[in-house]
Amino acid sequence: MKEVKSQAGKSTGPGKQGGLNAEIQSRIGHQLRAMYDDVVRQGVPERFAELIRKLDVPKPDPQVGNAGDPEDGRS
User: Fold this and answer.
1) DSSP secondary structure string, 18-68?
2) How far apart are CA 4 and CA 10, in angstroms?
3) Which of 5, 24, 71, 75 satisfies CB 3.0 to 4.6 Å to 20 for a cystine?
4) CA 74/CA 72 separation, integer angstroms
5) How far apart are CA 59 and CA 61, in angstroms?
6) How confident is the model at residue 65 (pLDDT cuts 50, 70, 90)?
7) Rounded distance, CA 33 to CA 21, Å?
8) CA distance 17 to 72
9) d(CA 9, CA 18)
10) How far apart are CA 23 and CA 10, in angstroms?
11) Predicted pLDDT of residue 48
């Protein structure tokens, strides 16, 4: 058990907390961009665009219509 514990406690180098260096992060970023650029270029399917347009149209709220109207008897 001590052997496993001593291996886990070792640092990757002086002053380092582990993780990926800048070069590796950059390579991963380039690979992700290459993969997802195709998806972005495809655009939004028309059926999704139509649903979004429908959601953007405000619906009339029956409670808001007369809320501030003094003729309705409320003050």
Assistant:
1) -S--HHHHHHHHHHHHHHHHHHHHH---HHHHHHHHHHHSPPP-HHHHTTT
2) 10
3) 24
4) 6
5) 6
6) low
7) 19
8) 68
9) 12
10) 23
11) 92
17 CB burial (10 A radius; 0-12, 13-18, 19+): exposed
74 dihedral zone (left: phi>0; alpha: psi -120 to 50; beta): beta
Which is more confident, 8 or 54? 54
Tell me the residue length of the chain.
75
Name the pTM for this structure.
0.36
Residue type for 73, please? G
User: What are the C-alpha distances in Å from 45 to residues 48, 50, 52, 73?
Assistant: 5, 9, 11, 50
